[in-house]
Design brief:
It contains 18 helices and 16 strands. The longest helix has 37 residues.
Length: 533
């Protein structure tokens, strides 16, 4: 096989990178960056996503779990990746981070400017360890770099070309040290833990591969020109009502949780963070080859909302709940539609049914087992027969009635007379017949009478029926048309575990099922008034 010369190889890699689907390329890039690492694929994914979105990531974890390794591996994702890495201490100076002051500039031009080329402002991938130990002067300069990618060097503002900023610490900033603004700049927060799986742990400690070796093919590396072009295309990714409604519901859930858990640390997500979150979701959709953000992308919200690890589980529940129970249902206006159908059904029922209340005598049971005799003849007054005995007479069978240790044969139930008198039974003793009346009470019951609706009312109902039917049909058609694409995408998401896809599909199926049920209810309502016309 003839070996390609470097120029030919670069041309080949360029051809591959321009023809490969963006989602395929992203997946391969993540796989290459994660090679040789164990239980670190998720943090690699999030770091790459943050970098392409132009955002920063904060890694929380004890020493020795590979926080700095993530940054060193991430630089391999870019074709041009000048790096800057620094361990902060309380004695760190701005000179060490942003570069020394140019003596020549100061002497010749009386300008206070730093030589930034080999420092943070001149890097593409930045890793700052123990970020909270930095001085206030460093923190203040970092705020504009993190938020706007701008560094003020003397009298001029420099637009820095940083692709990725990764910060780390083994602790969180306290509430009273003035670091809230800096902490808020890190859109993604991720807690790193030691390798947990036994198999992965044993492989990790025995693996002799050099994890700092760049094994990412040139065809997968991202160029500065591509980042610029992608940034423009990411801005064009649509954020539809399904996602916007989901975010709004999540926002309300967070506010409600804060109100009910006043003793706990509140979950605070302010306007700037929400705006950055949308940019992150757009980036995820773009890197999955889509032009619209979908519900699967919304699972990324889990890593952007929590402020303290103790909140992570609660935030995860909130995100999963709004996606599982409200995602598509809000989009189709299911709650409002359900109310419209309820009101329509109630209006029709109220109009065509006339309810008449009447009373009728029924036997009065005692302990659900006996009926009481109220015979005018005092001989049997106050005696009881069992419900079982009475039911025998109803079936045309004879029974035995015991009275003062003598047996009376139950032979008949009079059913020809109306009203309370019909609850009369016959007994015989020594060939003598006796009629016994049983105690009753008046039981109220409702009776519905039908009346045909006026033709104008019926026409209005028909119009309402058709409007609702058409809306349901449109929603069902739209969902069915999008189902194969959306649910397949959920299973193949580059950044989200496919095991979360059932949350999306469950909501999709539940909404479709309820739409069909509402459609059937409308048909039943229509049948109700038409059969009485």
């Amino acid at each position: 096989m003839v070996e390609c010369r470097p120029l030919e190889k670069r041309f080949f890699d360029l051809c591959v990178s321009t023809t490969m689907k963006i989602e395929t390329r992203t997946a391969h890039l993540i796989e290459a960056l994660s090679k040789g690492l164990y239980e670190r694929e998720e943090v690699i994914k999030l770091s790459l996503l943050a970098a392409i979105a132009g955002e920063s990531i904060f890694l929380l974890g004890p020493p020795g779990v590979g926080k700095s390794l993530i940054a060193r591996r991430l630089k391999f994702a870019f074709s041009s990746s000048k790096t800057f890495e620094y361990l902060m201490t309380r004695f760190s100076t701005p000179d060490e981070i942003f570069g020394p002051v140019s003596i020549k500039k100061l002497k010749d031009e009386d300008l206070y400017e730093r030589k930034t080329d080999n420092y943070l402002p001149g890097a593409q991938v930045v890793f700052l360890d123990e970020i909270w130990k930095s001085s206030s002067a460093i923190q203040n300069a970092l705020l504009t770099i993190l938020n706007e990618r701008v560094y003020r060097n003397g009298e001029q503002e420099i637009k820095v070309a940083i692709h990725a900023i990764i910060t780390a610490s083994n602790e969180l900033p306290s509430n009273d040290d003035g670091l809230a603004a800096l902490y808020d700049r890190f859109l993604i927060r991720y807690e790193m833990e030691p390798v947990k799986g036994t198999s992965n742990f044993l492989k990790m400690i025995t693996d002799t591969a050099d994890v700092y070796q760049d094994e990412v093919p040139d065809s997968l590396k991202i160029t500065t020109e591509e980042l610029g072009q992608w940034s423009k295309e990411i801005q064009e990714v649509e954020v539809g009502p399904t996602v916007l409604n989901t975010i709004q519901l999540l926002r309300e859930k967070i506010e409600d949780w804060n109100d009910k858990n006043t003793k706990n640390r509140p979950i605070e997500v302010l306007d700037r963070r929400w705006k950055k979150i949308i940019r992150l979701l757009r980036t995820a959709a773009f890197l999955n080859g889509r032009k619209e953000v979908d519900l699967m992308d919304c699972f990324l919200l889990v890593h952007t909302i929590w402020e303290h690890p103790s909140q992570f589980e609660e935030v995860s529940k909130m995100v999963a709940e709004v996606i599982r129970n409200h995602g598509y249902s809000v989009t189709v206006g299911l709650s409002a539609l359900r109310k419209e159908v309820d009101d329509f059904e109630r209006d029709v029922t109220h109009e065509i049914y006339v309810v008449i209340k009447e009373s009728e005598p029924v036997l009065k049971p005692y302990d659900d087992a006996y009926y009481k005799v109220i015979n005018p003849n005092a001989q049997f007054e106050g005696q009881f027969i069992t419900v079982k005995q009475y039911n025998q007479l109803v079936r045309g069978e004879e029974g035995v009635f015991n009275f003062y240790d003598e047996e009376y044969k139950l032979v008949n139930r009079l059913v020809t007379t109306k009203g309370a008198a019909q609850f009369t039974i016959q007994v015989k003793h020594n060939s003598v017949a006796h009629e016994l009346k049983l105690e009753t009470y008046l039981k109220e019951k409702s009776k519905q009478l039908f009346k045909a609706p006026h033709i104008l009312v019926a026409n209005a109902w028909t119009q309402k029926y058709e409007t609702l039917k058409n809306y349901i049909a449109e929603q069902l058609q739209a969902m069915e048309m999008r189902k194969p694409h959306q649910l397949n995408q959920a299973q193949q998401h580059v950044f989200i575990d496919s095991r979360l896809a059932p949350f999306v599909s469950a909501n999709f199926d539940a909404v479709v099922h309820e739409l069909r049920q509402l459609d059937l209810r409308l048909d039943k309502v229509q049948h109700t008034w038409q059969r009485n016309e």
